[in-house]
Amino acid sequence: MLTLRSALERAERLYGANTAIIDRDVRFTWSEHIERVQRLASVLEQNGISKGDRFAIISRNSWRQFELLHAAYWSGVVPVPVNYRLAPPEIQYILDDAEVKKVFVEDIFTKFMETKPLNAWKNSVICIPSGAGDVDFPTIEDLFVNAEFSQGSESDESDDAIILYTGGTTGRSKGVRLTHKNVFTNGQQNTGPMKMQSKDIYLHVAPMFHSADLLGTGYTLAGAAHAFLPTFTPVDILQAIQEYGVTSVMMAPTMIILTLQEPNFSNYNLSSLDRVYYGSSPMAVEWIRRTMDAFPNAKIQQGYGLTETSPILTTLDEDLHVRAIESENYDILKAAGRPLVGIDMRIVDEEGNEVACGDPGEVVVRGPNVTVGYLNRPQENARAFRNGWFHTGDVGKMDKHGFMYLLDRKKDVIITGGENVYSSEVEAVLYQHENISECAVVGVPDDKYGEALFAAIVVRPGTVLTQEAVIEHCRGRIGGYKIPRRMVFVQELPKSAMGKILKTKIRETYGE
User: Fold this and answer.
1) Mean pLDDT over residues 66-78, rounded?
2) Terminus-to-terminus CA distance in the chain, angstroms?
3) CA distance 133 to 141
4) C-beta of residue 341 within 8 angstroms of C-beta of residue 314
5) How does residue 170 score in pLDDT terms, banded at 50, 70 and 90?
6) Helix (H, G, I), strand (E, B), or coil: what is residue 33?
7) CA distance 65 to 81
8) Helix (H, G, I), strand (E, B) or coil at 156
């Protein structure tokens, strides 16, 4: 069966002697890792967590969280990783909504449990040690010492494997139910296009509470090794690549840009790096070129997906990146790529009818990696899942060769004077200015046009930029109605844990 337990069994059977985990403190083979997983599964059982139950994890990336997730898969238990950047009331909502039985909390976050919203969960806490000092909660290590080996429980392909909460910036977050088949299948779908191999060392940079971390499933299927970055900083990622001999990494464009701007970048040995995978948002051509120059041994590849799709839907491979840069025909780099094998994708209008080739519409998909639905959200499910298709909420277009071009989120399309403007198109032009490091374009209320374009811009350090210069730069590159006439220059843009720019926050701040 296509379950994540079967993926672990396969890794042990085929690659038992290969390295599974690389860390500064430990190094385990796949056989050793599975032995530890079986003992940790026993810890779950001893704490009253049985097949089908759920438990939460509040932790930074670590090999301990990796073990905990795998122990859950081994036991048929459902982990619920929680964004530790959320406020206590938001965390409380997730714990209540998911009806978790225990909360595994990294020692540096146990202070959360002293807050009023989370105080009721104090007796359900098990601490994940990271060396931060003594805590007043039982730790995994304490319980692990006397744990026996557990046979666990087999899951069905259709059983929930993991619940990831998405959203939360415009209302309460939604628990996305991903089954064993969903996650396993997407791992399979990615092994070929990403050329995953047993000799790879994959660095987990994306937060493990984020769906982007599920990209690691393919590396488990390939019997590769996993290394972990607790939190992102440019220096930390460069040190990790050098120290662990990392071959593959997935980063949001913002992470890549910040890393390339690290003053001591050239001091690190990054020759092991074979593949840089970027996603969560497009990357400007200039930064793609800089990335290829900075990592000459690495292939550059893009992916698009959502939490609801486990997560990858399309990929734009390395050959197309090289061809575009060498030919200086950059149009293909605007594409999110072609759908992976097993994924059906269409572009539809408001009534759900497929639009003509090249016309914009909503991206809808179906496939074995698409979620079965949201937890406790019947109305959301009815809106998102119609006639067998999942409606992504993204606006895109498809060309005659099957490349999908992502234009915008439906909620981010700006209607000004009756004209639709896709913010990504305007941002692509702004990024062509040499003094613009980052930018985001949103719609703000306007008495005359309904909405006006507003740009939040981060200027490259050591340079100066004016509103007049930005407007002049845009003239001749896009239509006059697409040029932002209102803007602000800021030191940084609000971002999610994955480094994705939060346009909702920009609209809230400058919408008036």
Assistant:
1) 98
2) 54
3) 13
4) no
5) very low
6) helix
7) 9
8) coil
